[in-house]
Amino acid sequence: METGKTGKTAYRTGRYLKYAVGEIILVVIGILLALQINTWNENRKSEYKEVKSLMELRKDLYQNLNDISGNIISLKNCKKSNEVIIYHIENNIAYNDSLDYHFSMLYPFITFSINQTTYETLKQNGMELISNDSLRNAVSDLYSNQFKQYQTFENTYLVSHYTDYIKPMFMSEFISFEYRSSAAPKNYTEFINNIKHKQVLKFTIDLCNNFIRIQSSLKTEVQGVIDLIDKEIGK
């Protein structure tokens, strides 16, 4: 009899242990599933934030691209107007009022205003939000190096050229000035016979050529980053 009771007790204990182990396993599985779902949700949130940031960054870059394209057009127009005036100087061609437009275009009047709103937000919140290493490095290099280097070059050469030479020339040699419209010289003959003015105009042409080349290269770099963003978003 005692042996039978012991066997029943052992059987019941075994069933209880199996039940308890099963419950523990179910709880563990439930916890693991919950953690997996939570991780999945967090990953989805992170991916959403990344895509949203990349879309905003793409929009900023297109604004920068449009700014660069507009600057290149202004530089080409400035170069052409300087060439027209130099042609008149070198060939001693008489004044006509159609030249007033070209006189008003002797400087390109450009500035590269970088749209970096999204980039600054990414820097504050962590550039690691961009999961693609190549894309993250390309974005950082474009904003922290290439854009900054261009702005330094612009301030060093283009802006200083205007301050030191173009502005004084406009103030001393012209009666009036309307932005990209008309600039009437006080004395056309004296202007075209002034060697210094010719030198200033030729240097302006050189500057335009250099900045057309630099901004064209910058335009290619910006488009390259946009292409990387499109590829990443399209995955």
Oligomerization state: single chain
Strand-residue proportion: under 5%
Compute the number of helices: 6
Low-confidence stretches: none
Roughly how many Å is the radius of gyration?
35 Å
* Total strand segments: 2
Features:
mainly alpha; 6 helices; two-stranded antiparallel sheet
Structure description:
The chain is mainly α and 235 residues long. The protein has one domain (50-233). It has helices at 2-90, 99-104, 117-125, 133-173, 188-192, 195-233, and strands at 174-178, 182-185. It has a two-stranded antiparallel sheet. Helix 1 (2-90) runs antiparallel to helix 3, helix 1 (2-90) runs antiparallel to helix 6 (195-233) and helix 4 (133-173) packs antiparallel against helix 6 (195-233). It is rod-shaped, with a radius of gyration of 35 Å. The protein starts with a helix and ends with a helix. The relative contact order is 0.13.
